[in-house]
Amino acid sequence: MPGYEGVEDEGFFIQPVDAELLSADRARQEVDYAADDAPGTIVIDTFARKLYHVQENGRAMRYAIAVGREGLSFRGSGVIGRKAKWPSWQPTANMIRTRPDLYAEYAGGRAGGLDNPLGARALYLYRGGRDSMFRIHGTIQNETIGHATSAGCIRLFNQDAIDLYDKVDTGTRVKVRSLEESIAIEGPYMDDAYGRAVPETPENIAQKPLDEQRMVEQEAAKVEAAAKQAEIDAKAAAKADKKRLSACKRKGIDAVDCPPLPEMTTADAGSTSVEAKLDAASNG
Predict the structure, then answer these.
(1) What fold, for 7-200?
(2) Are strands 173-176 and 42-45 parallel, antiparallel or unpaired?
(3) Active site residues
(4) What is the tens place of the pLDDT at every residue in 96-141?
(5) Which end of the chain is more exposed for a tag (fewer CB within 10 A), N or C?
């Protein structure tokens, strides 16, 4: 999709965003904006999981976001106090305490790059002249956009983070809506079966259990397919092992001394190259 292609940036290559992740209004677009926020303001709705950059004449650029636990802790307004390209990252003390298995090794920080959770850009929200620890940033997990996540602040697709970064300056006002404001302006939202924020309409309410049932059926089909494949692989391995032992017997090698084949695959079971593989294993 235009605007979400792969792009070279500051020495890093950002992968294109899969088209399926841009459905359900998750691609940025200019929209009508009915609220009375001043042009230039960034407005974040953590409940509808949308970010607006307000423009003139009742318009705004809308971006889809993912919202982490830290992103839910801020309400009210602040200003962009700092901007960074390919920012470094350090997990908070709370992140380390609650998930040491994920974050303890990065307690000293992590340099910017393609494996950095802040992605390609970061905007740092200040309030009262101090860093609020609230961030608007890119991501290395495109599939999370539109969802609630376990950690982090406000995530955008990297392409969107770059787009917004280029349009705002330090000092830009940022407003985070309350639940009451969100409902008044956007209407009530709910999570669909896939964890995405969608309007709480009768249609979406009715669709959710249908999608949940479909997901259960798809998972059951996956488990069944995996079990069938495991059975096929087990039979193939047994057949290959039988050929291995027969080949050793013909060569006068006791079963306990018979070397294993380099690999046991389904294809090997039907091949006639077991002795050749056995010779290779013996010579190795």
Answers:
(1) L,D-transpeptidase catalytic domain-like (2.40.440)
(2) parallel
(3) 137, 153
(4) 888 888 888 888 888 999 999 999 999 999 999 999 989 999 999 9
(5) C
